[in-house]
Amino acid sequence: MGTYGNGRRVAIVAGIRTPFARSGTVFRNLTAIDLGRHCVAELVRRHGLDGSQVDLLVFGTVLASPVAPSVAREVALIPQLGRTVQAHTVGRACASANQAITDAADQIALGHADVAIAGGTESLTNVPILHTKSFSDALVAASKARTLGARLGAFSKVRPKDLVPVAPAIAEPSTGETMGQAAERMAKIHGITREEQDQFALRSHRMAWAGTADGRLTGEIAPYFVPPDGTAISTDNGIREDTSLEQLASLKPVFDRKYGSVTAGNASPLTDGAACVLLMSEDRAKAAGFTPLAYIRSYAYAAVDPADQLLMAPVLAAPLALRRAGLSLKDIDLVEMHEAFAAQVLCNIKGLASREWAARAGFSEPVGEVDRARLNVLGGSVSIGHPFGATGARITTTLCHELARRDGQFGLMTVCAAGGLGFSMVVERE
Ligand SMILES: CC(C)(COP(=O)(O)OP(=O)(O)OC[C@H]1O[C@@H](n2cnc3c(N)ncnc32)[C@H](O)[C@@H]1OP(=O)(O)O)[C@@H](O)C(=O)NCCC(=O)NCCS
């Protein structure tokens, strides 16, 4: 048994999510808070949880609304939990739900809590749109002006271009590079071809479609009856049953139009959705009659220089998590890697098998070759979608369920995130 938990093993008791929907589609009129509340309410209902027993709720989000910056607290204020469940919001880019889960797990391990809900939510439809600096300055000056003339004067220097709204970029503030550009650059460094990326994307859709058709993925979903007419949404609308290598090959590169290989087909789409897990101390779970899906055996965070290979930090985090678990890759029954881009997964896989990256992580031996038959067996973010703040909880839920279905013992997950961040966790079944 790993040492995480200080003798208090942290159980992953259950997990659930909303359907994941391409942004601007079926959830366009819902906020991240609506999505988060729905998923937590259904977690409580499905598992007959007494809301008064919940000690804390931790939720991650990336593009928080300026009018409700603490998503976690707003999500916690559902009738099922009452008004007194303390909550906090975390941000670790695409690993935000993982951060929520490890924050909550740490509280359980410390003995500060016995029951926690952790996850994340994101509406990439409803991202905050900002004014330019010059227009914001004019608005502030106008609001302070005492006369109508001064108020109008405040706008005298505003030019038409200043009125163009500023949407949040998925770009690194430190380098200006977008995730897509980074994936493109990494594909070139590691010699990952367009065809390999498209093959991986196709595989992602096929696996996710199979998991939808046979209920393995839909079983993790809390259907949403979207107002005003209550249309039932119960599956992810980004998974394409009918995509093919030919269709994928016909798509134009997005981030390097001339020489690029990353397309809308082999990248994760912008997505709306929420996901969460129920965590308990082992003793509480057993005393309350719950059968844990799995236990947290270890986890690790790591980072690379954002100017380096932005999405490679999972390659540094995974060996650390494995060492903390006292395990090696050959012990692992299933691997779940967040698919920001097919190129990134393929680069991460190469990195895990490389001596150079092992040395960068401070290890003498590489983690090893990831067995594709054990990797993302229900697809991943390329097909299912990627609501930034929520993905970590989706991956955790799927990994635990699938591990149980296969009667496996150990599962490894990895997530890459903006800022050059990476996460890895090992879960174990009894
Ligand atoms: C890549 C990206 C820019 C594409 O955005 P987009 O152009 O709005 O994407 P769309 O969904 O409209 O797809 C573009 C086209 O490709 C087609 N397409 C996408 N995936 C396809 C597939 N698997 N098979 C066939 N066609 C596909 C769409 O049908 C669409 O065709 P159309 O223009 O004829 O309607 C956007 O998804 C993105 O920014 N993703 C990366 C997000 C990111 O950086 N995340 C952070 C990672 S941690």
Question: What does this protein structure show overall?
Answer:
The protein has 14 helices and twelve strands. The protein has 430 residues and is an alpha+beta fold. The protein has a domain at 10-126 and 270-428: Peroxisomal Thiolase, Chain A, domain 1. The strands form two sheets. Strands 1, 2, 3, 4, 5, 8, 9, 10, 11 and 12 form a ten-stranded mixed sheet that branches. Strand 6 (224-226) and strand 7 form a beta hairpin. The longest helix is centred in the middle third of the chain and has 20 residues, at 194-213. The protein is globular, with a radius of gyration of 22 Å. The chain starts with 9 loop residues before the first strand and ends with a strand. The model has no long low-confidence stretch (mean pLDDT 96). Bound molecules: coenzyme A (COA). Residues 94, 170, 179-180, 201, 240, 243, 247-248, 251, 254, 264-265, 267-270, 340, 386 line the site of coenzyme A.
Quick structural gist:
The protein is 34% helix and 18% strand. It has 14 helices and twelve strands.
What is the strand and helix layout of this fold?
Blueprint: E1 10-17, E2 21-22, H1 32-46, E3 56-60, H2 71-76, E4 86-90, H3 96-110, E5 115-123, H4 133-144, H5 148-153, H6 179-190, H7 194-213, E6 224-226, E7 231-233, H8 245-250, E8 271-281, H9 282-287, E9 294-303, H10 314-325, E10 334-337, H11 342-352, H12 355-360, H13 381-384, H14 391-405, E11 410-417, E12 421-428
Parallel strand pairs: 3-4, 3-5, 10-11
Antiparallel strand pairs: 1-8, 1-9, 2-8, 5-8, 6-7, 9-12, 11-12
The structure holds coenzyme A.
